[in-house]
């Protein structure tokens, strides 16, 4: 790997008030990003400004309602740019990815018949598994599972053709594992599924903060993500090909819009959050400089982010060799860092994941422990009933010194 790192986290960190938090006199180290990132001041101000201006519902003939209309329109345009959708009407918002997926799964499964088949993967977060399992049960549909290789926690895509057939209606697949960080070759998966006549639903919640999403290049039919995973508020985002969203029947109340995207947005949205969505996308775009369109700036930003985060991953993987009894689940080859996000699931001999996380927390280092709703992953690894794993997740606002501080704390645990 090249050591020519172009992203400087110092000025970026200064934009995040939460990163100044202290625990027992030590500056906190936020390595809990896979569970939710912190927000820059611009996002905080955008949300507060909306509420300060005056909140209203959509479609009114007065000032604050027209303002809310514009906030929603700008959020759609921002997410269109981030995901490279063809038009803003292909973007719908919801409370979170999970509720959106349950809604879409119910709509898609209306056309399923007994004897049809769907495919889910063991690498996915349960929010991209359980909705489909429940829909399949309701419709008498067979569920097939695409497994992953426990040695490096990558999907066995070579097995996908053997699962696909003329009865396959859907492939639900992750862009990257929220547990072990493995990135999926979506292009290959989508091509294979489409050749069999199946739709593809992509969970990009974990991938979006770490890589450039391009729904047109992937050619997926649906893709979901969560803004709080990329420095914004708690809002879920659904992308769907316009014709699919427009022609499917959404479960909604009767006065609601019959057209996309409104028919997919049940109830009143959190407009202050949508103001934060636009600010979060603009924050990311600013990392890519000032020249060009927002999409072009986002493309540059994600290249810089990816390069910098790979350097953090390399420092971590080289450093853990000094931690006795530490095991990383997933890709550990330095030459394959482009195949994973900077998210690491680890265990430490002699300690439960909860004990490790508790000690790190007392040292001001924030990590998760457990299964993080990656139930199928932990079952496949034989760890679900053993407390799961410790999850360490780096983001572009983390630093080399924070990696070193983590490594020293892990060495301290291992010694004691």
Give a summary of the structure in a few sentences.
The chain has 416 residues and is α/β, with parallel strands linked by helices. The protein has helices at 9-13, 41-53, 63-83, 97-108, 130-139, 160-163, 186-195, 215-218, 242-247, 271-287, 294-319, 353-362, 375-381, 400-415, and strands spanning 22-23, 26-27, 29-30, 91-94, 117-121, 142-146, 148-149, 154-155, 168-174, 199-203, 222-226, 236-240, 326-329, 343-348, 365-366, 368-370, 389-393.
Description:
There is one protein chain. The chain has about 425 residues and is of the alpha/beta class. It has two domains: about 150 residues, Alpha-Beta Complex (Aspartate Aminotransferase, domain 1); about 240 residues, Type I PLP-dependent aspartate aminotransferase-like (Major domain) (Aspartate Aminotransferase, domain 2, 3-Layer(aba) Sandwich). It is built from 14 helices and 17 strands. The strands form five sheets. Strands 4-12-11-10-9-5-6 form a seven-stranded mixed β-sheet, sandwiched between helices. The chain is globular. The two termini are about 35 Å apart. The model has no long low-confidence stretch (mean pLDDT about 95).
Secondary-structure topology with pairs:
Layout: H1 9-13, E1 22-23, E2 26-27, E3 29-30, H2 41-53, H3 63-83, E4 91-94, H4 97-108, E5 117-121, H5 130-139, E6 142-146, E7 148-149, E8 154-155, H6 160-163, E9 168-174, H7 186-195, E10 199-203, H8 215-218, E11 222-226, E12 236-240, H9 242-247, H10 271-287, H11 294-319, E13 326-329, E14 343-348, H12 353-362, E15 365-366, E16 368-370, H13 375-381, E17 389-393, H14 400-415
Parallel strand pairs: 3-15, 5-6, 5-9, 9-10, 10-11
Antiparallel strand pairs: 1-2, 4-12, 7-8, 11-12, 13-14, 14-17, 16-17
